[in-house]
Amino acid sequence: MAVGASLLPIDELTDRDVAAWRELAESAVEPNPFFHPDFALTVAGELGTSAASVLAVREGADWLACLPVERRRGWRRMPVQGLVTWNHLYCFLGTPLARSDGLDAAMSELIEEGMRHAGGFLGLDLLATDGQVNAALERATNALGLKPLELDRFERATLARREDGDYLALSAKHRRNFERLRRHLERDLGGELALHDRSEGAAPRDEFLRLEASGWKGEGGTGTAFAPIGHGDLFLRIAEEMAGRGMLQLVSAEVDGRSVAMLCNLVSEDTSFTFKIGADADLAKYSPGVQLEILYLDHFHSLPDLQRADSCAEPSNTMINRLWPDRRELGIRAIPAPNLKGVPARQALKGIAWLRRRRK
């Protein structure tokens, strides 16, 4: 059966398309819950779908690879319109979904179809550079004679399973400081700080929204807390959809039944991805978010099916960089179109890449 690729508007997908997308997401060679249809379509319903599409590589009714994309001007400050990874407010990884079988052929089809619709360029955002998909993408672009430009490459904190269970990267000085804060928290709240799995049921999700909103500081602080910006219902729908797939992990650091911080992760295959964290602002002096992250290390190790945890944090996040010992590499790449539209795109992309290097 012939393999082909199409650009499918996300709001015109059939039930059969969605089922094939879901099957691909749950068997992909590299996990990416942000491109699972139950996540992506839920977000699209809230944020709008006017520009979003899916690059899909198909063999008959089966999907071999896919990448949600949108046409944008202004991506990474690009003055030229291009077709780029759909990197919305709640997407923290842009690696395409793909099967392991026929990976090179699927990535070649994906790139070729993307270039047909690219306008000035095809932009690949938040692409994991340390995996099989990226290696196949590089082989495909080379074989097609295309010349990608790397706009940025950076690392973010992760956990990789260790036999000894020793994950905490804090210095001895910082360990003592947070242990002191924990003792003070336990003394003042009258109980022992412990981690509880709250993944089931609606009440913990409402509690998470309350904690996250307690630290809201508007434009001067946390800019993406769900409830204060009108996305509380979106979080609840995401949680419900992901829980229905067994992909929601919601844990709470509690003292005597009082939640001091909560962590919401999305679990895909053998990896958990930090989605959001909320902490009680009234307890900020005890660093409840850090206390939660320290407790989570033992929880992660207690789940043998998990081999990796991705913090999904900004590379400059000092807190998580101090706590978690491992790193994964991500990149931002653009492929100028091999035509007249690609000429100004290549020049602009070169300028953007140069400016990023200068800032670093």
Kindly describe this structure.
The structure is a single chain. By secondary structure, the protein is an alpha+beta fold. It has 2 domains: 3-156 and 328-359, Aminopeptidase (3-Layer(aba) Sandwich), CATH 3.40.630.30; 162-306, Aminopeptidase (3-Layer(aba) Sandwich), CATH 3.40.630. It has 10 helices and 13 strands. It has helices at residues 15-25, 37-47, 103-116, 132-143, 172-189, 203-214, 232-244, 288-301, 318-323, 342-359; strands spanning 3-9, 52-59, 62-72, 82-85, 97-98, 121-128, 149-160, 193-197, 248-255, 258-268, 271-279, 308-310, 326-336. Strands 1, 2, 3, 4, 5, 6, 7, 8, 9, 10, 11, 12 and 13 form a 13-stranded mixed sheet that branches. Helix 2 packs antiparallel against helix 7 and helix 3 (103-116) packs across helix 4 (132-143).
Short description, anyone?
The protein is of the alpha+beta class and 360 residues long. The chain has helices at 15-25, 37-47, 103-116, 132-143, 172-189, 203-214, 232-244, 288-301, 318-323, 342-359, and strands at 3-9, 52-59, 62-72, 82-85, 97-98, 121-128, 149-160, 193-197, 248-255, 258-268, 271-279, 308-310, 326-336. The radius of gyration is 21 Å and the shape is globular.
How would you classify the quaternary structure? single chain
Ranges with pLDDT <50 over ≥5 residues?
none
Backbone shape = globular
CA-CA gap between termini: 48 Å
- Which structural class best describes the helix and strand composition? alpha+beta
Q: Determine Rg (CA atoms, Å).
A: 21 Å
Strand percentage lies at: 25-35%
How many independent structural domains?
2
Mean pLDDT: 94
Number of strands: 13
Query: How do the SSEs run, as a string of H and E?
Result: EHHEEEEHEHEHEHHEEEHEHEH
Q: Largest beta sheet, briefly?
A: 13 strands, mixed
Please report the first level of CATH classification, the CATH class of the largest domain: Alpha Beta
**CATH architecture verdict of the largest domain:** 3-Layer(aba) Sandwich
User: What's the helix count?
Assistant: 10
Question: Which percent range fits the helix content?
Answer: 25-40%
